[in-house]
Design goal:
about 300 residues; mainly alpha; 13 helices; about 55% helix; disordered C terminus
Length: about 300
Amino acid sequence: MKYHVTDLDALDFLGYLLIDRKYSNNTVMSYDLQLYELEQIVRKPLRSLSDTDIISFLRQKKEVNQARTIAHFMTVFRSFYKFLEREEVISKNPMDDLDLPKLPKSLPKVLSKEEVELLLDVPLTNAYQYRNKAMLELMYASGLRITELISLSLQDVNLEMQTVRVLGKGSKERLVPIGDYATYYLDLYIKEYRFLLQKRKDTDILFLSSRGTQMSRQAFFKIIKQLGRKKGIQTDFSPHTLRHSFATHLLENGADLRSIQELLGHSDIATTQIYTHISNQQLQENYAKFHPHGD
């Protein structure tokens, strides 16, 4: 992986995230870009920075960025300087007395059940469309992250048991059940259409691109955005929105939080509890809309 940052301590830190912590390439690249911005402005070794240097940098950034972006910078810097402190590269951590900016709580976007049905109604005339249909059905049936979805191999799918084996964050493996719809379209795609996209016989990647390689996050995002526009879906959404919709619709239909936590691969149930807020918000909106004295 080629990094932007040149500071040697920063490069050691990125290697630690990638190898020891098993962070994804995308996350490590995000950390790289944040540290690179700091490096470009301060123009001195990052290990030598004081809290005054960090504050000066963040003030410059605050003029053009929202609080959430500033918070992300601080998260990266805090992790970086903790690493240097633990490695005994520095004796004083410049982030010790700096507080994260308070962020407004925002709920994740969710598609309605009707919007999901529109999105899943993919025209089926060629191998690419059967692949897209199988991917969408699987994503909504399982709540997989987009990275988990595109990383699946043929061996991860058990059509007879109607399950997929998923390697999630932190290399944690989980077994996720899938429904009849996803099983049907996966079976159809694998047996009748996948070979049409296959350029190399030795690849076992489940969902293949037009080049016969693993699909990228960006390619799948583009596919579902085009489908959404064609279907007239007004809600702004991404692949992750299907994961949020999966969890929210399960909760609305009576599933318990602990089960949803296991299905999503959350290590902390507090992360899963946000979906209760989404359901409560929708409940209030429905009350205001349909109750005679709701407004």
